[in-house]
UniProtKB/TrEMBL annotation:
<dbReference type="InterPro" id="IPR012347">
    <property type="entry name" value="Ferritin-like"/>
</dbReference>
<protein>
    <submittedName>
        <fullName>Phenylacetate-CoA oxygenase subunit PaaC</fullName>
    </submittedName>
</protein>
<dbReference type="InterPro" id="IPR011882">
    <property type="entry name" value="PaaC"/>
</dbReference>
<dbReference type="InterPro" id="IPR007814">
    <property type="entry name" value="PaaA_PaaC"/>
</dbReference>
<dbReference type="Pfam" id="PF05138">
    <property type="entry name" value="PaaA_PaaC"/>
</dbReference>
<dbReference type="InterPro" id="IPR052703">
    <property type="entry name" value="Aromatic_CoA_ox/epox"/>
</dbReference>
<dbReference type="InterPro" id="IPR009078">
    <property type="entry name" value="Ferritin-like_SF"/>
</dbReference>
Amino acid sequence: MSDVTDDHVFLSLTADHGDADARWAFGTGFEDPLHGVDTTVPATVDAAELAACCLALGDDALVGAQRLAQWCTRAPELEEEMALANIGLDLLGQARLLYSRTGQVDGSGRDEDAYAYFRDAEDFRNVRLAELPNGDFAFSITRLLVLSCWRLAVFQRLAAGAPDPVLKAVAAKGVNELAYHRQFAADWAVRLGDGTEESHRRMCAALAGVAPYLAELFASRPGFGIDPAEVREEATTVLRQVLDAAGLELPEAEALPGQGREGDHTEHLAPLLAELQSVARAHPEATW
């Protein structure tokens, strides 16, 4: 066993993100993150760039949330099922806020439901890693770890310097949520990687499955002056810290052609969206 415990990894990843004893998603409160925020698009902000940024990050969150929802009744233990559900709800909340902002600034006036339920797969702009099937628990944990490391690095920069006050507020709320997501995934990555021979094998297989999608993820450009190279460096530094504690290595892999940000998706996205959108499309005029 490694001499680096789960608690050491946990503390090292959450020291700058509030309560280190928190074990549940931060997004379950009722405080409106946009309370008092001026929703007028600043004159200095490129509305098209803002809309594209919000849409892409919203799509990442929605697709990721839907994949996590598929773990309901299937997770190894009830506590993990609840944690994954809470993480999915965090991402769903981020998607709702980002879609609402997209509709405000792209000239369409569409609401969050229009973006979530009434677009086809080719209209989505999520990174392809988010849409891959869940596989086993090790794969879902590995994907969550990678996406959380990357998304947290992006949201930290948006929270600090996004020129749009709404996007800045959404990112600020998301930072605490994503810090928890990253911690949860890191905790499990160490347990599995530094656990039994079988759990270690499964984590190695999961890393091999994720690796071909990393180049696309780290090349993604959030906009507003955020340097993808800086995001990649920060995310991979944390990822390698966790993998070192788990006795794992990030394998080299040839990047797959295509970009989810440009509408190039795997064959897995369309059926996932069909599952997500079925009720809304069958009853488009339904109300609560």
